[in-house]
Amino acid sequence: MKIYSIKLVINLFLMLLALLIFPYSYVSFAHELNKSRITIITADGHSEFFNVECAISSVEKTKGLMFREKLDNNEGMLFIWESDELRQFWMKNTLINLDILFINSENKIVNIEERAQSGSTKIISSKFPVKYVLEINAGQAKKRNITFGAILAQKKLYDQC
């Protein structure tokens, strides 16, 4: 009976330890992603720069910015696929409001979801097939005059990330 009690205490301790560490694995994971600097050329010809973390693998895309408590105004996350398709996002477990920019394979912004609400389970869909999705702090698209038709200046993002 004594051995059973010791094993039970050890198992409970390990489960508690795992529960304490698990949320931080989401937070720290995104900081280890490949990073790059991208340029968005606005419709009026102005250049806007963002330091982005690139999400290429399905694991990186699934985690995205979940559990992130802060994102600087010049930072973002760029999701990259090999081809254009309709893309769907939600804000579950995302702690900050975001602007979501949908970008096609011609590097044009074709749709913007402004001020997506943190924690929402509402599905946010691209209206057109896209190859890239850029998530930035809510309000930054409007503040920087990034609208439909703006261009992502980089051509070979797989090579950059």
Provide the descriptors you would attach to this structure in a database record.
alpha+beta, 9 strands, two-stranded antiparallel ribbon, 35% strand, Jelly Rolls, 4 helices, single chain, 27% helix
What's the arrangement of secondary structure elements?
Blueprint: H1 2-31, E1 34-41, E2 47-55, H2 58-63, E3 75-85, E4 88-89, E5 98-103, E6 109-116, E7 124-125, E8 130-137, H3 140-143, E9 151-152, H4 157-160
Parallel strand pairs: 2-3
Antiparallel strand pairs: 1-2, 1-9, 3-8, 4-7, 5-6, 5-8
Structural class: alpha+beta
Mean pLDDT: 85
- Based on Cα principal axes, name the global outline: globular
Question: What's the CATH C level?
Answer: Mainly Beta
Q: What is the string of helix and strand elements?
A: HEEHEEEEEEHEH
For the secondary structure, the number of strands is 9
The CATH topology comes to Jelly Rolls
Number of domains: 1
Separation, N- and C-terminal Cα atoms: 56 Å
Number of helices: 4
| Major β-sheet annotation | 7 strands, mixed
CATH superfamily: Protein of unknown function DUF192
Adjacency order of strands in the biggest sheet: 6-5-8-3-2-1-9
| CATH architecture group name | Sandwich
Question: Can you describe this structure?
Answer:
There is one protein chain. The protein is an alpha+beta fold and 161 residues long. The chain has a single domain, classed as Sandwich (Jelly Rolls). 27% of the residues lie in helices and 35% in strands. It is built from 4 helices and 9 strands. Strands 6-5-8-3-2-1-9 form a 7-stranded mixed beta sheet. Strands 4-7 form a two-stranded antiparallel sheet. A hairpin with a 5-residue loop joins strand 5 and strand 6. The longest helix is centred in the N-terminal third of the chain and has 30 residues. The protein is globular, with a radius of gyration of 19 Å. The protein starts with a helix and ends with a helix. About 10% of the residues have low confidence.
